[in-house]
Amino acid sequence: MCGIAGIVSDQIHTVAMQNTLLSMSHRGPDDSGSLEIKVDKWHLLLGQTRLSIIDLSSKGNQPFTSFNQKFDLIFNGEIYNYKELKNQLISSGLKFNSESDTEVLLNAWIHWGVDCLSKLKGMFAFAIYNRSNGSLSLIRDAFGIKPIFYSEKLGKFAFASEPKALQNLISKSFKLNDQKMFNYLAFGSQSFGNETFFEDIKILEPGHILTINLTEPELKSRVAKWWQPDISQKGDISESKAIYEIRESFLENIQLHLRSDVPIGAALSGGIDSSSIVCAMHYIKPKFEINTFSYIASGSTKNEEFWVDIVNKHVNAKAHKVFVTPAELLSDLDELIKFQGEPFGSLSIYAQYRVYKLAKDSGVKVVLDGQGADELFAGYDGYPEWKFRSLIRSGNIFQAIDFLIKWSSGPDRSLVNVIEKSILTSVLSNKTSEFSRKFRKRKIPSNLFLLNEIEKNNIDTQISLNALKDIGWDRSLTSRLLHALTKTGLVDLLRYGDRNSMRWSVESRVPFLTTDFAEYVLRLPESFLVSQNGRTKDIFRKAMYGIVPNQILERKDKVGFETPELDWLKTLANEPNTLLEGLSEISWVNLNGAKVHFQEVLNGQRAFNWQSWRLINAAKWATIVLRG
Q: In whole angstroms, what is the distance from residue 58 CA to residue 100 CA?
């Protein structure tokens, strides 16, 4: 686990690289190094900061050059099945000088090329340079667990694990991406393809590979997708067989994710996903001391301590709990925004931030986390409108109606709302439909924005559900889950987790997210995922019986890292005028209107919504990060 950076330029940027690595020391405090290579007119500089997890010796330090001196690698992540791959490579004649997974990755690339990616169980963002043909390749794992940001301006190509590190590398102040900020402030949208909140910084999308050739006179990147799973339904498969195979595959994932040469623990919210990880750890290694880390919302209806305690007692864990006060949020907010680097969706991110700090303070360097299970097994509310669409497409009209009625009987569910969503999704693929366009439009809060400035900045105000137009019809639910896994939703959650864990030099592992596991689940009958009665994650719950306490598996609510946002916002709002002053950096925001909006929320004149938080986040981000 590390921070990586690189630059291709006709000039030498040694000092800039040193400053870049220093700015990412929190991502890798154990070692740092760089390598310069001259290729025709270009200078290639690769750098890395190391967080030592596997093979703690200096033999695992990077940049890593191959035994034949033809390849150079910088790597951020972990390859959990490195021992199995290493045995295969040794039998094929490749040599090793360390016990690190980094050297396994390098030799796997040498031996199999791009085909090695489908063999990897892990999380990774790496850059590899081929001295034989002058190609530099940047590769990101299938789900985007680990990041790569890049910029290609002014005849340079540069990349890094964080936007501000990239900014340091090429010594350039970046401008605001107005379209992305508008999407965020107006509609809460964060995922935006390869766009970031910075105008000239892109992010390599999950499951993609970027290549440039240093033997060419001009630098030109080429981006291609390397992972696209088949989501067609398997042939006849019984539910009992699927339960068994999911159980065995999940336990194997947990076994692999426990490989570490440093102390390891788990984040525990009390929900099904994190509880399954903790209980599976105990099931596999009954004598293993399990350290759990939990955020406890004291005095809140969202307090999950009751469920956390059930799991801790079941596995005899060493429990660590963090109780957050509004004053602590006020004290930490600027630093949280700085290390997140880009605006984020809710204050639940602070709860996660404190959980990783707790792990750091407890001497635990690796933490397993349950991210990805909701998107893989149709958690949250079960994506009912998409299952409805699948049933309608297959001709099961009465079954579709029956499903919506039964689904709506669950807690915090609305039949009216899901019917509206179901009608909307049924017309998404018809681009010319007036009915579809009517439903897609979103109302812009005119009190918050200066419409003439928005027009002047060429901002598209008709953001809609067009982002979902590529979702297929025949298996709409599964197609929507794949979209959530790789394009929206999970992409943002993994970004938060990466920044929060790396702030405290802690490695966050997500055992639900391996390509083989995902490919298996995405080909199951959709009825296995969400039952006709509306039970979410149905097949996974059944697979965990006997491992996880029944009380946990039979939960119907979904809380996770939810926090008492309004109480926290009231603490932040002692000086509302000062708090929002940073919005003056955004020319098309009505600063006075924003202050009035926020004051009305505090006074109870306007219902709390996430727009209130987004205004604060954008204001502080503009001051701390964009202009900082």
A: 10
For residue 545, give the nearest of 154, 247, 237 by alpha carbon: 247
Kindly report the CA angle at 470 between 187 and 511, in degrees rounded to 5? 80
Per-residue model confidence as pLDDT tens digits over 563-581? 566 677 777 666 656 788 8
- Whether the CB-CB separation of 271 and 549 falls below 8 Å is answered with no
- CA-CA distances (angstroms) from residue 173 to 151, 201, 336? 12, 11, 21
Of 529, 532, 526, 537, residue with least CA distance to 402 = 532
Q: What is the DSSP letter of 29?
A: B
At residue 223, the pLDDT reads: 97
CA distances from 461 to 118, 209, 498, 589 (A): 40, 31, 31, 13
Sequence-separated (6 or more) residues with CB below 8 Å from residue 93: none
Measured distance CA(8)–CA(387) in Å, rounded: 48
Residue 564 inside a domain? The answer is no
Residues 12 and 143 in one domain: yes
Give CA separation, 175 vs 167, 499, 538, 574, 608, in Å. Answer: 11, 21, 46, 30, 31
423 and 542 co-located in one domain: no
Its pTM surpasses 0.90: yes
Distance CA 614, CA 509 (A): 28
Please, is 283 exposed, middle or buried when counting C-beta atoms within 10 Å of its C-beta (0-12, 13-18, 19+)? middle
pLDDT digit string, tens, across residues 73-101: 999 999 999 999 999 999 998 889 888 99
Separation of alpha carbons 69 and 66, rounded Å: 5
Q: Which domain holds residue 179?
A: 2-225
For the record, the structure tokens of 94 come out as: 């490749």
**Cα separation of 554 and 552, whole Å?**
5
Domain count, the chain: 4
Q: Is residue 233 part of a domain?
A: no
Sign of the torsion angle spanned by Cα atoms 488, 275, 361, 122:
negative
In a domain, 230, yes or no: no
What is the per-residue pLDDT across 444-478, written as a single tens digit (0 to 9) for each? 777 899 989 999 999 988 765 456 666 777 799 99
pLDDT of residue 334: 92
Residues 6+ positions from 217 with CB-CB distance below 8 Å: 41
Spacing of C-alpha 40 from chain mean position: 38
Residues paired with residue 24 on neighbouring β-strands, in sequence order: none
Q: Domain check: are 506 and 365 in the same one?
A: yes
Amino acid in the structure at residue 295: Y
- Judge whether 152 and 210 are in contact, CB under 8 Å: no
Answer for the pair 19, 176: CB distance below 8 angstroms, yes or no.
no
Claim to verify: residue 511 and residue 369 sit in the same structural domain:
yes
